[in-house]
Amino acid sequence: MELNTQHLILRPWQEKDSEDLMTGLNDFQVSKWLAYIPYPYTLKDAKRWIDYCQNSGEDNESLTYYEFAIVLKKKNKVIGGTGLDLVDLNQGISGGGGIWLNRKYHGLGYGKEAFGKRIEFAFKDLGLSKLENGFFPGNEASWRMQESFGYKIETLIKEKYLCLADGKLKDEYHTVLLLKDWIF
After folding, report:
1. Prediction pTM value
2. 70 φ/ψ angles, rounded to the nearest 5 degrees
């Protein structure tokens, strides 16, 4: 499955993406905002992730997962990733997922473009009514982007994740977007 925007293609991860994946996540300024990404991020880590995405399938009877490489059309280059995790099609909700971009592509609007397409896919194509996300305190860029789509902060969860990049327990602001609050 491919999702297209003006500048981007969101598509399943492929083996050929491992170098771009490694380069994008082997940057502490990116990985420190992601719970499950070690630093340094190696080619072996990238290949393991791609293998997981290709072999875990989308369906787990009650929960579904969608993981997308974000490809910049004009360069045909992977510049990040986004996903919808713990999608419960019976309940119409997604319990997670997020976005990251190679730091070279920050501030150019690509993150918002990809995240917006992800939200559109969740609500229009999958028929979900609620998306749950979050961000670590200090990651104001993530919050501003989520807020621009209508997300609301529900709570601060203390010491929710052990961040693999720095080995520290991180608090997380839990955010929610209801279909009726979506700004598109």
Report:
1. 0.95
2. -100, 115
